[in-house]
Amino acid sequence: MAQDDNSGAELAAADSSHAAHASDASPGTALIVQDAFENPGFPAHRPRVTDENPQREKRAQRTVYTLFYLSILGSLWAVAAYMLFPMESNNPGDVRLNNLFIGLGAALALLALGIGIVHWGKSVMEDVELVDERHPIGGSPETQAAAVKVFTDSDRESGFTRRSVIRNSLIGAIVVFPLPALVLFRGLAPQDQLPVPLLSHTMWRKGTRLALDPSGAPIKASDVTIGSAFHVIPEGLNDLEHGKLDEKAKAAVLLMRLEPSELNELPERKDWSYDGIVAYSKICTHVGCPVALYEQHTHHLLCPCHQSQFDVANHCEVIFGPAKRPLPQLPIAIDDEGYLIAQSDFTEPVGPSFWERH
Amino acid sequence: MNRQKRRTGRRHPLATVALLAIGLVFTGGAYAALSAGTTAQAEADSTSQQTIEEGKKLFQANCATCHGLSAEGTDTGPSLVGVGAAAVDFQVGTGRMPMQMQGPQAQEKPVQFTDEQVKQLAYYVASLGPGPDIPDDHLVNGGGDAANGAELFRINCAMCHNVAGAGGALTEGKFAPPLTDVSGVHIYEAMVTGPQNMPVFNDLNISPEDKRDIITYLKYVQDNRSPGGFELGSLGPVAEGLFIWIFGLGAIVAITVWITAKSN
């Protein structure tokens, strides 16, 4: 009962206050704030030390011109440093000294200039506060009406809305215009070869010997001891006259030997390895970084760019990271002399996805 | 005359002392030379039975818990038959063995044995089965072709150890250690034996001369400062980005605050 009484009293009080302010508030307003925030205006002008103390003003002036003289000194020093620390010998240490001292001079010149100008403006120039009133963004009603009239007049005169066939054909022409530029991108690909087969095939052929990077010496199966990792290029890559790097970028292979018992091979790839020696493309299937961080005991291959991990013991399947496909395996065998050879090219495109492969 | 003759015939009072001193120096010197010769011989002689016996005692006292009494291996440590003297000299000589605790990989720590004891252990293990030997000095003193070494390093090593040899992370807590203060012998031994998870680079993959060139390149990087100024650990964009975001942007923010603050 007591509670009811209370709430009744409050309602009555609210009612009376509402009635009292009915004249200056809209009928929907429930609460009238009495202590509205008042515009405090601008703070009082505070004079600077340099305005009150002539000695401080003198000192500020001295600081400013000293900074400008320092700037001159820095510029001159940069010129002197160019002559005092030349890059004439083959010692790379000279480059460091040359760059360091020229840079220090130039930095001093610009910084002293900038700091001097700002200090001048802040403490020596006259300190007057100005108010710039904002003008409204929208134009006057007459200007707006005139603008609208221009639009409606021109629409009426040209018939842009009325003559819809003309309008639509114009829009079509504008949309189609950039198409030639898109088609011209085709010219960036080699002209006499289709890009898709180019991306799908590498230099590896049936019988190509596996050779050491960079010397190009062929590798015997007996050279590859357990735990070894060989960085491999196809034999004959070094003899190419054109496109050597392009071919290397696709054909680079990492050759590893594991204990044959640790190797878990797919049934259809049983004859792709030789006595525990496996060869995998070194190009990551994510965005094409060279994957070569091989750990010989865990058989993990780590890509340094985005931390994709491949398990060499399990046909290089992805065990971590953003790569979606296992690294392509190069089927290998040995020839009559004991050298490692490729059985064929990779059976799938190496490296990252492209339009026709995803 | 008489007096003069007597004077010439007479020995100096200190002559005996001098003679004695000369004699002592000779015998002492000869003994020292001889004994030094024998110890040098004992150290260099990898097949000396005495060295191997000493090594065996050290092995059984310090390594047998994990590697087995005759290095045949147990559940906690691999067999050391056939790993060669180079593997022991690397693992024990850099303090990685005896291992502090099982973990992703053996950590470097202060070396636990004297150089002689390390050699004795190495030759004992080498006597168990053939394996790579400790390399000759001319292969590890850095007298090769640094440019060739740099190319080989970039192809075979830089992906894990960083192009400037600053080291880098591998999977699951393992890492490739920095090569900035590793001796030439240990670099060579690591290449031929493949410690921890490092692959083996045998002499048919990278010839001994090429290994010497790689060591020469690493010594060159150690001895010559980077021409680009502050290396920031040679870690590339991570360290450089952190530096420029914190100090570069910090400086810009500070200057902006100063420009807009009212002069007092």
TrEMBL record, chain A:
InterPro entries noted in UniProt: QcrA_N, Rieske_2Fe-2S, Rieske_2Fe-2S_sf, Rieske_Fe-S_prot
Domain of life (superkingdom): Bacteria
Keywords recorded for this protein, A-Z: 2Fe-2S, Cell membrane, Disulfide bond, Electron transport, Iron, Iron-sulfur, Membrane, Metal-binding, Oxidoreductase, Respiratory chain, Transmembrane, Transmembrane helix, Transport
Matching SUPFAM superfamilies: ISP domain
Low complexity bias locations: 12-25
Signal peptide as annotated in the record: none
Transmembrane intervals: 64-85, 97-118, 170-189
Membrane topology of this protein: Multi-pass membrane protein
Cited function: Iron-sulfur subunit of the cytochrome bc1 complex, an essential component of the respiratory electron transport chain required for ATP synthesis. The bc1 complex catalyzes the oxidation of menaquinol and the reduction of cytochrome c in the respiratory chain. The bc1 complex operates through a Q-cycle mechanism that couples electron transfer to generation of the proton gradient that drives ATP synthesis.
Identification of the protein by name: Cytochrome bc1 complex Rieske iron-sulfur subunit
Species whose genome carries this gene: Agromyces salentinus
Automatic annotation (TrEMBL), chain B:
Entry annotated with the keyword Cytoplasm: no
Signal peptide interval: 1-32
Residue span(s) of domain Cytochrome c: 50-129, 144-222
Cell compartments where the protein resides: Cell membrane
Pfam families xref list: Cytochrom_C, Cytochrome_CBB3
Membrane topology of this protein: Multi-pass membrane protein
Principal EC category: translocase
Name recorded for this polypeptide: Cytochrome bc1 complex cytochrome c subunit
Organism: Agromyces salentinus
